Amino acid sequence: MWHRPSLLIALNFLVLLLPWLVLPLPWASAEQMARGIVFHDKNGDQHFDEGDFPLGNIGVSNGREIVSTSADGRFTLTIDDDDIIFVLKPRGWRTPLNQENLPRFFYIHKPKGSPKLKYPGVDPTGPLPDLIEFPLYPQKEPDQFRAILFGDPQPRDQKEVDYISRDVVSDLIGTDASFGVTLGDIVNDDLSLFGPLTQSIALIGIPWYNVIGNHDLNRVAKHDHHSDESFERVFGPNYYSFDYGPVHFLVLDDVIWEIPDEGRPGYDGGLGADQMGFIREDLARIPENQLVVLLMHIPLVDVEDRHELYRLIEMRPFCMSVAAHLHLHVHEFITAEDGWRGPQPHHHIINVTVSGSWWSGAPDERGIPHTTMADGAPNGYSIISFDGTRYQLQFRAAGRPAKYQMQIHAPDSLSQENLPFATIYANVFDGSERTKVEYSLGDDTWLEMEKVLALDPGYSRMVEQEAAIKDKNWREITWPEISTHLWRTTLPTSLEPGSYVIRVKATDMHGATHHGNHLLRVTP
User: For residues 86 and 108, is the Cβ–Cβ distance under 8 A?
Assistant: First the structure.
């Protein structure tokens, strides 16, 4: 039982505390109700006015929850003073594009703007408008279409932006792809290059989506929540989703910016509770017979809370994912060994990078570094083709014809006595554990090659040769790493002197075949 003096003290304390219980705390954001409309913008002025048609059952999100528009196109969502509202683009519709062909599918609400950082964030947006307007425009989206995937363009300066323009962008102008995606590390820490790079990629002439990477963060930010401010200013929300044709694309932010109590700030792979909530609600809206494609930067097996994500996708019969970050090209098939419980392994692609080995290595005849990746594959990009629930990836080497899909490492000339010691390697750039690689010596007899996990011998030799060059005026190439797409074989010891064609044929998991040739001269 309380004594009377103690009770009086407690009551007086509650009287003093009461204003704080009913008023917002001084450091808390004021929560408001955002109201908006999604509509067919028939006159193209991006405002809902006479003649425009409201669109019902369209998803809209604040990054935590998703609501559907009513029959009159209206929605309401809670919003605080540091939020982004965005529409989930449905099939058969497109959002507006800005001059850089970046989709404008969001409204940023930061009345006071971003905190002061090294690179500018969002300017103050002012008070919440009475009506947030999301215009959409009808477009044809067939079951069959293609998309372009860029991993890590990662320029350090304008010179490297120009490398990207000449090495990759120029060859893609006029593409029939429906849209493109950069899978993070859009730039290399200098966020002022967002503008020049997006202006270059815009010349390809198609809508371009972007994933945030660890080198796209404002590295002086004191909290993860503020590390994305410059990205948001240019590209919008750091995670979102959209439909194109029969495919659902889920763009993730799996980079967490961390400020430890001691030591230097850094990043880790993770998704976080808010984003996981969005993913859960987003996937709940998608039928199981629809293909879901997850797009991220850090590979899935390096994301701390990936098992929570696994539980949301592992029973879907049609789901795959793509990342970048490693500056290698890898096909992973995630199984129970990593905690996957699905009936089939999950196909996860670590995409070839535009920057290869960070724009390093001796320059070619164009003055562009050869920047070969550490697994022996060239720098480049991927084209992914879709047909309903089916997909197929196609590797593209920068500055090379489409048929350049492998590099054969074999001697040009070999004496008969050295035949027993010769090993032939084939680096099939888009190869995986589900690729079959065979070779032939000019006839119709095909013999299977052995898949190995090893260093690419040609790349290792090139690293040694370039390291021996003194007074280099280029950035030294990176050290070799194990290649996951390397095959080897030995030659018959009974070859007679003469010239031979070593033919290599690779058949991928989808049945597509690629060919390469190497000429060999056997001497007495």
Answer: no
| C-alpha 514, offset from chain centre | 25
Size (the chain), residues: 524
Between CA 79 and CA 118 the distance in angstroms is 27
Place of tokens 């990078």: 353
pTM beyond 0.85, yes or no = yes
Q: What is the 3-state secondary structure (H, E, C) of 349-397?
A: EECCECCCCCCCCCECCCCCECCCCCCCCCCEEEEEEEECCEEEEEEEE
CB atoms inside a 10 Å sphere around CB 478: 18
Q: Record the tokens describing residue 370, joined without a space.
A: 């050869």
Please, are residues 186 and 228 in contact by the beta-carbon 8 Å criterion? no
Give backbone dihedrals phi and psi of 199, rounded to 5 degrees, phi first. Answer: -65, -35
- Side-chain-side CA neighbours of 121 within 13 Å: the count stands at 26
Q: 3-state class of 333 per DSSP?
A: strand
Pairwise CA distance, residues 247 & 253, whole Å = 20
Q: What averages of pLDDT result for each successive group of 10 residues across the chain (524 residues)?
A: 43 43 43 95 95 97 97 97 97 98 98 92 95 98 98 98 98 97 98 98 98 95 89 98 98 91 83 97 97 98 97 98 98 98 98 98 96 98 98 97 97 92 96 98 91 97 96 94 97 92 96 96 94
Residues 219, 189 contacting (CB under 8 angstroms):
yes
Domains and CATH numbers, the chain: 32-137 (2.60.40.10), 141-397 (3.60.21.10), 406-523 (2.60.40.10)
